[in-house]
Design brief:
Chains A, B: One of its GO terms (biological process) is chromosome segregation. Chains A, B: GO terms for molecular function: crossover junction DNA endonuclease activity; magnesium ion binding; nucleic acid binding. Two copies of one chain form a homodimer. The first copy, chain A, has a six-stranded mixed β-sheet with strand order 1-4-5-7-8-10, sandwiched between helices. In chain A, strands 2-3 form a two-stranded antiparallel ribbon. Chain A has a two-stranded antiparallel ribbon with strand order 6-9. Chain A has 178 residues and is an alpha+beta fold. The longest helix of chain A is centred in the first third of the chain and has 14 residues. Chain A has five helices and ten strands. Chains A and B meet through strand 3, strand 4, strand 5 and helix 2 of A and strand 3, strand 4, strand 5 and helix 2 of B. Strand 3 of chain A pairs antiparallel with strand 3 of chain B. The structure holds magnesium ion (2 copies). One magnesium ion (MG) binds next to loops of chain A.
Chain lengths: 178, 178
């Protein structure tokens, strides 16, 4: 019979779950203060029932103008986007919005650390790619080149993170060398 | 007849409006990358009408676990909360949540800049108080002392910002000396 080893699997967790756990761990241990930003919504209608909490009855998702995570580590400003793909051979750049690229480029100009965390969900492999590398592949695309980054290119230009238990996705040590 | 000079008035704008304008100005001029975080909501029900955008039909406001604004300036992590009061003689501390105090204290531990921007709306006066000063008044309250900061204490421990046109609330120069 086929057996699957779940010891290092993500057990149905999203990358966001894994990163929230990781950031909670960092916060508890006083290693960094990094939070996921709330999903931006445009609130149109709110009801105020007596004796209970306000209920939002009509709202719409807005396009985020920044990345999903930011905070402070070791005196540095840290800013990143996290993306997962089921693709086994490349990371499709359509997952990233151009305003997020613009945002990360501004962060880097102000000496912040900006990067992308990629999960290849089918492969259970995780990579951290600094913005400066991502930007090269992005520019290749907008000048007519391929619309994805091959796994081999990612292996060459990003740092692989081996998933663990506590913390799940230990990305802070990688930042030392970014 | 009584005349009011509106030349420097905020013309019905909220402090959030004024700070968003200020941050846009900083962003356009490449001076800093600071954004307001979206309001955190717990989304319960979403409808997906065909041919139109998803509509959130039930959601609730969640307590924020951080402050409202953060970003990067000059390589530094910047984090602040903004509060306005109609009070003319003091700033009531009930406007601030204890998890926000906790958050700002962690930011300072990681060498970020954490502060409070206060608008006395009736007086049209604006102050920037670094967290280290706010913490003293907060601790006075939780050890049984007064539940507000008097205007005189604010004048002594914070820096006043004179509102202008572009940018409206020019807080970056103050950070040089915080
Ligand atoms: Mg995202
Ligand atoms: Mg607030």
């Amino acid at each position: 019979a086929k057996k699957k080893d779940f010891s290092f699997s993500n057990r149905g967790k999203t990358l966001e779950d894994e990163l929230n756990e990781t950031n909670d761990y960092y916060l508890q241990l006083g290693l960094a203060v990094i939070h996921k930003k709330p999903v931006p919504v445009q609130i149109v209608k709110v009801e105020y029932p007596s004796r209970s909490a306000a209920v939002i009855r009509e709202a719409y998702f807005r396009a985020p103008s920044t990345t999903d995570y930011n905070g402070v580590w070791n005196g540095r400003y840290v800013d990143f986007e996290a993306k997962e793909t089921e693709n086994k051979t490349s990371f499709p750049l359509k997952n990233i919005h151009d305003h997020q690229i613009h945002h990360m480029s501004q962060v880097v100009k102000h000496q912040g650390l900006a990067f992308l965390i990629i999960r290849f969900s089918s492969l259970e492999r995780y990579f951290i790619m600094r913005f400066e590398a991502l930007e090269i592949f992005w520019n290749r695309m907008i000048t007519g080149g391929r619309k994805s980054i091959s796994l081999e290119e990612i292996e060459d230009t990003a740092v692989e993170i081996m998933p663990g238990a506590f913390p799940r996705i230990d990305y802070l040590p990688v930042l030392q060398n970014l």
